[in-house]
Specification:
single chain; 75 residues; mainly alpha
Amino acid sequence: MPRPIVTAEPETGRASWHRDLAALERLLRASRAPAPSRERLAALIEAEAPGALPAATRDRLAARLAAYLGGETAP
């Protein structure tokens, strides 16, 4: 007769593990520095190379960088 499969942790332990993982993720997100704003990024780009990019291009690049750094989908 086959032996029953025994898991290392009961179902209630698995739910606890998921809660712990979610709490850790929240803690890590809270400890991360906030992403810079679009305006801040545009100003940094302009300060690095004054007049090198048209304003519309600089703003579009800043928006894409802000979305990337903030974990969002770029426009």
